[in-house]
Write a structure and sequence with these properties.
Elements: H1 2-25, H2 31-47, H3 51-58, H4 60-63, H5 67-84, H6 87-115
Helix pairs in contact: 1-2, 2-5, 5-6
Amino acid sequence: MILLIFVWAFLIGGLICVIGQLLMDVARLTPAHTMTLLVVSGAVLGGLGLYEPLVEFAGAGATVPITSFGNSLVHGALTEAKTTGMVGILTGIFEVTSAGISAAIIFGFMGALIFRPKG
C-alpha cells in the first residue's frame, strides 16, 4: 500500500527532526552543534550498517534529513577504500558528496543573483 510508504517516511523523518529540535531546546545545543551531532550520528549508523535498512524502510524519511549526509560520507569512504585502499577513504568522501555540495553552491549563487539578498 503506497500510503503506508508515505506515512513511514513522514514519521521517521519527523522523528529525526524532533530529535534535532529537542537537542536545541532541551539540551541547549547550538544549531551548529546539533547539525554536527546529527551528521556524526548518521555516519556512525552508516558505518555500523544500520542506516541502509532505515533507508529501505523509511525511504525519503531517512534520505532527506542531515543524518543521510553522514551516512553518505561513510558509505563513499568505505566503498572507495575497498577498491583503492587508504587513499580511497578521502577520495570516496568527495566522490559521493561532490554533486550535492556543488549543486548547493551553484543554486545558492544563482539565488543570490536573482533575488539580491541584503545583509
